[in-house]
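A reminder from the course coordinator: this example appears on the midterm review sheet, so study it carefully.

Given structure:
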């Protein structure tokens, strides 16, 4: 009987760790990409679990619940740890893409959509460009490896089966959701603001020269100005995107503390 209990507890511990790793493949950018086969995601999560179990089992040994419903609740709770971490990063990527969509509206590209290969949904041209640029920078600064490292270290903060949901975690995500719109404005403001000033200049020209067709003349000028600004601002955007990536990565341990018992 004690051997059966020990086997059940070890399997239960393996399932908890596996669920926490599996959670990052649902919302986290890059990891949740449709380009990656689901079988590959399962294999990566299993590999990380096999590496982590020998380390965690020496420090924590969760008690196997007597109720099967509690087993499911514990596993879903562990899954939510990876989901919450992925959601925090996903909000940053969504903010940058939203900023690109604002630029699209100012440049006249809003009507043209392209398919995002990572999510499989349609998005405007500049929004997709911003998203791809942020993804490349995220990979260049090893953001995906930092996320795995933080998730591995999360077992020191949140013991397996010890996830604690409280109001602070919801307040955190409400604040991050509000910051998403502020970040989108910061991303869009340099180019959208410049195109707005260009609209003002074109409006004065239209009043001064009524014979000029503002739509035919203005649209190519706004597109050209927007593309030139995008090219000129690439070095600035690289530093800015790297900064916001590391900001959200450095916030992840704080997020895990909100979930700790």
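Designed residues:
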């Amino acid at each position: 009987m004690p051997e059966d209990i020990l086997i059940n507890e070890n399997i239960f511990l393996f399932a908890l760790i596996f669920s926490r790793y599996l959670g990052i493949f649902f919302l986290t950018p890059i990891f949740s990409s449709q380009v990656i086969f689901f079988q590959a995601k399962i294999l990566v999560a299993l590999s990380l679990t096999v590496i982590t179990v020998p380390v965690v089992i020496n420090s924590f040994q969760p008690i196997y619940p007597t109720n099967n419903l509690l087993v499911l609740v514990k596993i879903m709770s562990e899954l939510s740890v990876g989901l919450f971490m992925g959601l925090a990063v996903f909000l940053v990527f969504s903010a940058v893409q939203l900023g690109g969509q604002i630029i699209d509206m100012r440049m006249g590209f809003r009507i043209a959509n392209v398919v995002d290969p990572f999510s499989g949904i349609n998005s405007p041209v500049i929004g997709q460009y911003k998203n791809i640029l942020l993804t490349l920078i995220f990979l260049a600064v090893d953001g995906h490896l930092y996320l795995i490292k933080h998730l591995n270290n999360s077992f020191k903060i949140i013991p397996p089966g010890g996830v604690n949901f409280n109001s602070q975690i919801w307040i955190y995500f409400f604040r991050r959701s509000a910051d998403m719109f502020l970040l989108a404005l910061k991303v869009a403001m340099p180019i959208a603001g410049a195109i707005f000033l260009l609209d003002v200049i074109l409006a004065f020209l239209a009043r001064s020269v009524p014979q000029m067709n503002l739509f035919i003349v203005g649209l190519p000028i706004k597109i050209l100005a927007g593309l030139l600004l995008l090219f000129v601002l690439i070095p600035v955007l690289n530093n800015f995107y790297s900064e916001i990536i590391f900001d959200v990565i450095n916030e992840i341990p704080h997020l895990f503390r909100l979930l700790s018992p």
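The first strand starts at residue 113 and ends at 115. The radius of gyration is 24 Å.
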